[in-house]
Amino acid sequence: MAEVQLSFRRYGSTGHTVLLLHGLFGSAKNWHTQASALAGDFSACTVDLRNHGASPHCAHMDYPGMAADVLALMDRLGIEQTFLLGHSMGGKVAMQTALQAAARVRRLIVVDIAPRAYPRHHDEVLEAMQALDLSAHRTRQAVDAALRDSIPDERVRQFILTNLVRDSESGAFVWQLHLPGIVDNYDHLSAAPTGAPYDGPTLFIKGGASDYIQATDRDTIDALFPAAHAKVIVNAGHWPHAEKPQAFQKLVGDFLRADADAREPR
Fold first, then answer.
1. Which of 23, 30, 179, 26 is nearest to 93 (CA)?
2. Mapped to the 3 state alphabet, what secondary structure does the chain carry?
3. pLDDT at 184
4. 43-73 burial, b for 16+ CB within 10 Å, e for fewer?
5. Would you give the end-to-end CA distance of the chain in angstroms?
6. One of 7, 27, 55, 88 is an active-site residue; which one?
7. Has this prediction a pTM greater than 0.85?
8. Phi, psi at residue 80, to the nearest 5°?
9. Can 22 be counted among the known catalytic residues?
10. Residue 87 has what pLDDT?
């Protein structure tokens, strides 16, 4: 599977590079607040993973291929080694990158996801997005209303709607993400990252109210990431970086600044 040229945005130009990877249905824009906070001490780079945001659409998605995309982006930007942070699906991409190219990852942060396979749990959302005739709706409010019955959770629905854009030629609404590619590859996205253990410094950040990381995951985490430790952000769910941004910023900043050479370029 050939690598794709990922879209990205850089924040700051001093200090070591931090790559930030979003989750399923997300985009680089999800990390604007956190990247802005990091930019004082680091060169933060938010990334659109394949089939998301402004990055290319592809028929195939799996973690080895998505990790190869990240490594190709690093090569393109001249980044020999990076701090790598990923949430949910992006956390699995970050783990896969560390597992298959350990020398390229200086420190790893995984946000509210474990290195294991998960059961399917986005089918209702995917079916609702596929079933909706976007051409029948002229306003964002109308699309929101049309999805309300099938996606009743307001927060989830608004997150999905961040993918709603206008076609540059027709002006009609379209999904910016590549929905068919995600649907066809969902089983790959549910799978676990694989590879040789990564023994670099690793931080798992768990939302205290989230069940994505469980006590039973500890053995697998220890086997693949022997230098890992975990922090819990209380009263936060699956999106602790959005729900408790200041607490999240402190955990991330403290962990990255613990690197003796963190302020050196790249």
1. 23
2. CCCCCCEEEEECCCCCEEEEECCCCCCHHHHHHHHHHHCCCCEEEEEECCCCCCCCCCCCCCHHHHHHHHHHHHHHHCCCCEEEEEECHHHHHHHHHHHHCHHHEEEEEEECCCCCCCCCCCHHHHHHHHHCCHHHCCCHHHHHHHHCCCCCCHHHHHHHHCCEEECCCCCCEEECCCHHHHHHCHHHHHCCCCCCCCCCCEEEEEECCCCCCCHHHHHHHHHHCCCEEEEEECCCCCCHHHHCHHHHHHHHHHHHHCCCCCCCCC
3. 98
4. bbbbbbbbbbbebeebeebebbbbbbbbbeb
5. 28
6. 88
7. yes
8. -75, -40
9. no
10. 98
Question: How is the chain split into domains, by residue range?
Answer: 7-117+191-257, 123-184
Looking at residue 35, what is its pLDDT?
97
Token readout for 88 is 């949910």
pLDDT the model gives residue 221: 98
Among 22, 137, 238, 241, the active-site one is 238
* Cβ within 8 Å of residue 252, ≥6 positions away: 34, 38, 85, 109, 203, 205
Say whether 238 is catalytic. yes
Reported CATH class of domain 7-117+191-257: alpha beta
Determine the pLDDT at residue 1: 67
Q: Kindly give the parts of the chain with pLDDT less than 50.
A: 263, 265-266
Q: In this structure, is the dihedral angle defined by the CA atoms of residues 50, 29, 10 and 200, taken in order, positive or negative?
A: negative
Looking at residue 169, what is its pLDDT? 86
Tokens 């906070």 sit on residue: 37
Q: What is the pLDDT of residue 126?
A: 97
